[in-house]
Amino acid sequence: MSEREIEGFVDTIGKKSCDIDPIPASILKECKSALLPILTNIVNMSPQSASMPTAVKEAAIKPKLKKDNQDSEDYSNFRPISNLKVITKIIEKAVSCQLSDHVRDNDLEESFQSVYKHFHSAETALLRVQNDVLLEIDNQKCVVMLLWDMSAAFDTVDHDLLLEPMEKRYGVKGNVLKWFRSYLQDRKQFVTIDGNKSKTKELRYGVPQGSVLGPILYLFYTSPIRDIIRRHGLNCHLYADDIQLYLPFKPNPAEQPSSIAKIEACVSEIDSLMVCNQLKLNREKTELLILSARHRPPPLVEYVDVSGERIQPSPSARNIGVIFDVHMSLDKHITSTCKACFFHLRNISKIRDFLSLADTEKLPY
Questions:
Q1: Is residue 254 domain-shared with residue 130, that is, in the same domain?
Q2: Which end of the chain has a smaller Cβ tally under 10 Å, C or N?
Q3: How far is Cα 356 from Cα 360, in angstroms, rounded to an integer?
Q4: Do 87 and 179 share a domain, yes or no?
């Protein structure tokens, strides 16, 4: 890669440094013109030698609550964010850029995945699913939708099982495949809390959360799940580790049982694959919605069997931050949004006397 490309990567990195960084990020950014030849040489030599330097494979783990209002005494509420050295991020950005180009140029991108892709986001995922459902409802059909995600998805990735689809499905071979093997092997990490550091441990499974390559590698790892969904003829859309399965059916006693059975068969096969690949379904977050037109009587679906557990239909469920209700009216989402807005506006009103007009206008944004 050229010095100009590496300079672009340096510019995107924040000034906040990792605890194990030998050079603070702020100094590196200020002195980038002098350091660019060295950085460019390091970045280019790593893939060429099919080796990720051992010194940059260490991570400082800082546990972070998934949501601010969660119980800090429950360890499952924390996300293990990997803080990496600046040079690690630059190397990963360079490799990620070339890997993304390879996937895109060879038409290997997943059509129904809306994350880690150019011009895709949570909005595109939600719009696609909502549009599909509303079209089916307009065609006098109902839709059974299953929302689920993985538990500790990034932490259970088996490195050998990951490299197999990378080679066979995505055409990552030769020195590039060797580089990824080197990237995954011999990684070390420690936990740091309030300046206290734990013992350093080897990371034998998983990909680092907070890394540039981690999310992309996770998509590669879970690619067989999408094959199963297609084989069973279900509609799906994915956003990172959130999976939206949905299937339209005519609201009559003849078709409804077969549609439910089709979803159950698909989920059962996915669950078997997940067990083999050391992935785990987060059953607590699994939701079932039976979607239909408001003016039609809802179909009577008692439950869907998900890996031996009966999931009963819910009147509404949060899907990638948006509340879906059984009629896709978004009434509950609008009510929830207005409630949150009024809560924050009331809090702002309590400190309004201490703020200037300019500062007050900035707060809602």
A1: yes
A2: C
A3: 6
A4: yes
C-beta pairs of 93-99 under 8 Å, 24+ apart in sequence: 93/9, 93/12, 93/212, 94/1, 94/5, 94/6, 94/9, 94/43, 94/47, 95/47, 95/179, 95/213, 96/212, 96/213, 96/216, 97/1, 97/5, 98/1, 99/172, 99/213, 99/216
Name the residue range of residue 339's domain.
Answer: 331-364
**Residue 205 φ then ψ, to 5°:** -130, 160
Model confidence over 168-200: pLDDT tens digits?
A: 999 999 999 999 999 999 999 999 988 889 999
Judgement on whether residues 137 and 285 belong to the same structural domain of the protein: yes
Continuous segment of H or E residues that includes residue 145: strand 142-149
Domain holding 135: CATH number?
3.30.70
Kindly report the pTM of this predicted structure. Answer: 0.85
In this structure, the answer to whether residues 147 and 135 fall within a common structural domain is: yes
- The tally of domains found in the chain comes to 3
